[in-house]
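Task card 7
Instruction: Convert sequence to structure tokens.
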Amino acid sequence: MSWLTVYPAPKGVPILTDYRVRVRIEPEMEWKELDTYKAKIDMHNVREVSTAYFDFEGKVECEVESLTENIDSAQIRPDSANVKFQKEGNILRFFLERPANLSIEINGNRFNNLHLFAGSSTESAQIVKTIKDTENIRISSNSEEAKDSLMVCKFELSGKNVCASVVQPTEKEIDFDAVIDAAAYHNGQRVICFAPGLHRFKGDCALLPSNTTVILAGGAVVMGGFLIDHKKNVSVMGRGVIFLGHVKRETYLRGVDVRFSQNIFVEGVTIINPAHYSIHLGSSGNIHIRDIKAFSCVGWSDGIDMMACENVLIEKVFLRNSDDCIAIYGKRFKYTGNTRNVMVRDSVFWADVAHPIMIGVHGDAENGGSVLENISFENIDILEHHEPQDDYLGCMAINVGDGNTVQNVSFKNIFVEQFERGKLLDLQVKWNKKYNDVPGKVIRNVIFENIFYSGDGEHTSEINGFSKERKVEGVRFKNLVVRGAHIRKPEDGNIHIGEFAENIQFE
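Output:
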């Protein structure tokens, strides 16, 4: 059965009008127009881009009209999505039959482009309808503010009937502690849903207790981030937006900040312009991050960073960041321990600054280093890598410091498109004295399988250790393809193998 759902943006949210975007299920069906949110990107030269989203089932026709310039040429990326379009004047039309996270670029411009996120049916996407169809039941609370802004509804979530407290939009800032105190608690789980509209948090941050599910319905925008600290069984999900473009950089506020916690699920939301990482994971485990979209434009505004974490699954994310899109570390700050069992798959990375993928810089130097192991990246599109500093190059980078050991890492089915400035890969045991007390220990057992790079002009990739005692050991390339050529020798792929690297194989 075919269906289409769009989500109007609430008043008060930054909107761009560079594009007119419409969608419809069948040619004879009525067009539905999408609002285009404004996000800022690229810390070195901050610019504004458009982003829009919708959900559908079946076959959807999309129409994108440029309102600011004539269309001489256009591109829809990633290339692996293979989206064919027709151009009529300043309008592009194309069809989608499955979910996709796309960049529509006019006249080669990647910095005023449209990001179009076409989603599928999810539980959280359907909750808006449930709210509208449910009779309002006022709840009792000591907080008059909570009484004014909350109602209770019932719906099915993961096959279970649950009772949810629904937060209604209000002109007032939300005291989230009062919402928690008043929230319905059903079958051991507290469920809080933000209805469509604009919601402002007091202090720009909401602290979530254990056994809590927060749902941002489509069309909901929360101005503030979520903190999960020493908690368990917490979910942040939905089709709404976490907006932090109004906070000062010095706050270092993150979209979702997970500390010393277990059994965490983050799904579906879009995170716009946090003051630090979009999602942070510290000393936490059993984490599932799915279908997140994120944009950032300040220094150290990485996409997803993890420190001393175990059992992490990240899938179907779109990250456009002004620092590393994904960074995997051992010990850092107050987060101690090793990092292992990390899977990242089916995702798109766009690093306006720094690395799309970075592994290994930080660890427990005082105690011989951290171990980072069993890490996999599969089915990844890399759309950009631009780093002005020569010490921080590499689309796929393993830079090991602080006595760390990095082992059992795989990169499979990675599609790298033309990037501005960087290396395809960088595997080094090194001593970055800005961040490391001592050099790293070893990189061991890394496989690159089905790696495709279509661009040119990249800096020479590097594979090298630090010394005879601190080596890179065992790197295997299986079907590395650069500019259409199957690479069987390092020099043919613009790769330098240093003297402290051994057992490097090409096949």
